[in-house]
Amino acid sequence: QILYLKPPWTLANLLKCYKKHWMAVFGYVVPRSLLSTIECLSKHLYADKPFDSSTVHILLQESKKLLHAFSCRSDYNGVLPQAYAEVTKLCETLGEVRAALVEQDLSEDIMVLSENAACEKMEATTPNLQSTEEKELHPSFHVAQENRHQEIWSVLEGVWNTMNLYSIELFQKLDPSAVTMASKASFEEAFLGLQKLLAAVKDIRESIGR
């Protein structure tokens, strides 16, 4: 009789009901701090912009927190465990996709760096011709070299951004205070990510050395 919105409910309606009745009802059933989870879900699920993988990751983790909190009260005829399992499966799938994309980006960056290093080595071993024709082409040679330097800089910037992504992931997984906005993933996953990063940096160093 006092419901803010009458059933049948959509997900948007449910989130509105959660917020409206949080202090009087739901805050006595689950921790009141989970209101931030409701607000996060409501804000992102109905925003007029596409999701990136980081946002999807956060939404899945916040959903897991909410389902887990209510499951401490009841399994609601088996519905909550099933929902929690499905969301967990989505989290794992998203993690695999993100890891594959990061690994692909690193491989591409390393390949380009290796090609550039080979080109520079060839140019360094090419005899310096002092002909008039070469002197006329000298300005264009500088332009090409400048473009190549910009390309190398762009690749290094891409590698740096990827390293930042790994750093963010690691801090979110290892810092307990970041749990409200990120996954509380296993240390094994964080360690594997670090190993990938170290291997990539080693390949880059070897390529630059060559």
Question: Layout of helices and strands, plus pairs?
Answer:
Elements lengths: L10 H10 L14 H11 L7 H19 L7 H47 L6 H43 L12 H23 L1
Helix pairs in contact: 1-2, 2-3, 3-4, 4-5, 4-6, 5-6
Protein name: SWT1 protein
InterPro entries: SWT1_Regulator
Based on secondary structure, the structural category is mainly alpha
Give me the number of helical elements: 6
Q: What value does the average pLDDT take?
A: 76
Q: Roughly how much helix do the residues carry, as a percent range? A: over 70%
**H and E string:** HHHHHH
Percent of residues in beta strands: under 5%
What does this protein look like?
- The protein has 210 residues and is an all-alpha fold.
- It folds into two domains: 11-104, no CATH class; 143-209.
- It contains six helices and no strands.
- Helix 4 packs parallel to helix 6.
- The chain is elongated.
- The relative contact order is 0.08.
